[in-house]
Amino acid sequence: MSPVHTEAVTIQLFDQEPRAFAGDLLAYLVEEDIFHLGDAGKALNRVLQQVCDTGDFKGGKEQTFLLYPSLAAQEEGNAVCAKRVLFAGLGKQDDAIHVRRERLRLVGGVVAQQAAAIKAKDVLVVLPKDYLLDAVEIAECLAEGLLLGNYRFDLYKSPPKDEKDQPARVERFYLHDGGLSQSAVRKGLERGRAIGEATNAARDMANHPANYWTPAEFAEYAKKLSKRTSLKCKALDKGAMQKLGMGGILGVNQGSAVPPQLVILEYRTNRKNPTLLLVGKGLTFDSGGVSLKPPAGMEDMKYDMCGGAAVLAAMQAIAEIGVAGVNVVGLIPATENMAGAAALKPGDVIRHYGGKTSEIINTDAEGRLILADALAYGIATYQPEAVIDMATLTGAVIIGLGHHYTGLLTNNDQLAAQLLEAGAQVGEPQWRLPLGPEYRKQIDSRVADIKNAGSDRSAGTITAACYLQEFVGETPWAHLDIAGTAWNFTEKSYIPKGPSGVGVRTLVACLSQWKGLKSVEKK
Ligand code: BES
Ligand code: ZN
Ligand code: ZN
Q: What domains sit in the chain, N to C, each tagged with a CATH number?
């Protein structure tokens, strides 16, 4: 079974008149109460006006209207060649630029959904000329919405006997500039394509069952990626981890029959540029270990690698689109957490990379153990300006924030500001939670330097972050707890049920506009 499923869905510019497009669906994006399609031709503008007059369609957010040009009176010599025309609503212009971006992603998702409903294979979308946003961003957000909304994963289903029962997916998207600068549209389309494809690749990794997506697949994907891009890749195996003393990853791996990996990807620009370190939890299945999880819903724990997938996919996207002024290193500690005969037991003491010891209270608090080694190793090896880790770390973050906001915990206000801004831009909001010595005390151990879980469940997300903080020293660091947002997230037109690919777009946005950190701030 191929570990990567995303078959090529293409997206490209269409540089003839939209009415010459002879594909399955031609979509126009309509702002609320602005019943005019620019240069779409008299006939279509008339139809839109009539439809709006009936009140059936007003261009409201996610509203649609489908029509068949062959049934309408066509203009002599000016006929629309597409089989169908879709009007898709953008809603009212909003003052907030983040909202305008999100509207475009949402409308992209809606077009993809409508296209699937009619089994369209070729779809042309005309960009809205008077939409108050930079042309690069218009094309980028729309391309993202189309590709993300078109996502399907059916690799493990036998194909239906009848071809017509095949689940539908668009194969070719086209964008028409709608009168916007073609070079800007081309640039935005290329960014949206790379970021959308990377996010879908992260969803694929998560959708694979844990018997197919193991630590070795993480390493294999990264190695292949490094062959076709400028990224450098290394993967530390169990022997290398033993030499380095990575007792966290090795400890969690003890109960599993599948060997661990520490996958390393490097994006290098210039030595003089600062390095940013990304670390993602690549726990390919979390049974809880000896502190076994209850069976109901345990199958979802194949998604416990979504942080690692997001880091790997973000590295893929930045290798394709490039980011200036920074070097980026991605680390993915990957292992299963199983309850085999050699598994860690509550009460055991492990020694992390760098020497710190930890008393295991609960073997289900394993994410922090593998991240601790990766954080300490990454900081010692690369001396980054800042570190961002991403992990499905605690059930507690779901109790606190539900499925709509990612938890953000950080020792640096400037880093917090950059991440919050990046998340808001891409429609992946975060909410900051506190850190502090009063919480840190909850993981004091009587027998070791630290223990891996507090004695009660209070502030579970914060105590988990306090554990990680022990391994970053003074380095500016942010932890994103995506346990609530990595799957079955707020359903949106461009985020279907299942893994959302959260974090990829936030990381890419954050790296793309990195502003550096003033070194005065220490906490
Ligand atoms: N992978 C889980 C966290 C999780 C739970 C993610 C639910 C997504 C949905 C993590 O390894 C875990 O089990 N954490 C424990 C920690 C506790 C034992 C201190 C938790 O949150 O219950
Ligand atoms: Zn766990
Ligand atoms: Zn886990």
A: 10-203 (3.40.220.10), 220-512 (3.40.630.10)
